[in-house]
Amino acid sequence: MPRNAPLILLYGANGYTGKLSAQVVQREPAFAALRDKIVLAGRSEAKVKEVADANNLPYRIFSLEGEDDEIDARLQDVRVVVHMAGPFIYTAEPMLKACVRNQCDYLDITGEQPVMQLIHETYAQEITNSGILAISGVGFDIVPTDCLAKRLAEALPGATHLDLAICNGPGAALSRGTALTSFEHFATGRPMCARVNGEMKNVGVAYTSRRVPFPTYGTKNAMFLPWGDCYSAYFSTGIPNTNVFFPAPAFVAPFVYYGSMVGAVALKWIPGLHCLISAAIPKIAQGPAHHESNIDVWGEVRDEATGRVATGAVIVPEGYLFTARAALLSAIHAYNGTVTKKAGPATPSVAFGAKFVNEIEGVTELDVIVRDAAEVREAAAVAH
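Above: the chain sequence. Below: its structure as tokens.
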């Protein structure tokens, strides 16, 4: 078990989601209990101090590139770390290792498959031996998709295939950190994987498409993207085949599929292109406006042997505000020990239950509908 330390440390407090989380702690009554427990942190004193002062919260400064003993000294009084500093492919491992050394629960807000692999594979034994809880993806989109996937799996035991789909409202925008994280994942040539027969298989972006009936935005064509759920949903549901889809016109998918290959080659062989794009992203990505519309999260599980299908959906508020609230609520549960799994690698639904997403303000959960094979065939005939 983690040490009975008094604090929750939010690392990356000067990023877009970090700032928003600090504001949520200070302004929303639901998180008032955190005000004497949370400490902000990051590597830039000027930037972190500005956020801390604006929200009347304490702070501390350290770099994850520092020596282990320097990092450990900042975690001696910390029970839970909420890691919000990207790009996570560079920052997650040193923070996770520090949490293992110091017996602090580790939570992060990314949805990157390589980071999840650190928890569920690379350091799984060390995490278990340390007695800490480690979860990647305690924000959007993993919390709603993971909870929905688990709910669908419970409704249709024995399901063999899971499809998830996400549709943002018009005008949705990325923060600088999210945009940079997404670019770094692509630029480093990492595999674009789906879960196929229980294994992660490099399939490429947009390798498959389907029609998705989103509850708010209507039926749309959607193409595959290698989202984190392709990796993590297996640990929540045991379903061996998982794809995640995002809306895109049918004619776009082939361009994306082949264009991603060309782009990867260009980044590898054109000198300076990687640095040029990395430098441009913070200037271009300004982050979302808080008035942005809700997000549809849709899911379907299928049993190929019986033809039975279960579908459901969750509607969540703007993704960054959702992430701030979900991450803070996750930290509260971990801090208080109100979890269904006390230690080891976990997913949000495994640690907090399939209904965890309902605890977050602004979420609407739609009913799960289970149909037998005849009903599925009839619905398909009507659609065509």
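The chain has two domains: 7-138+320-353, 142-318+362-383.
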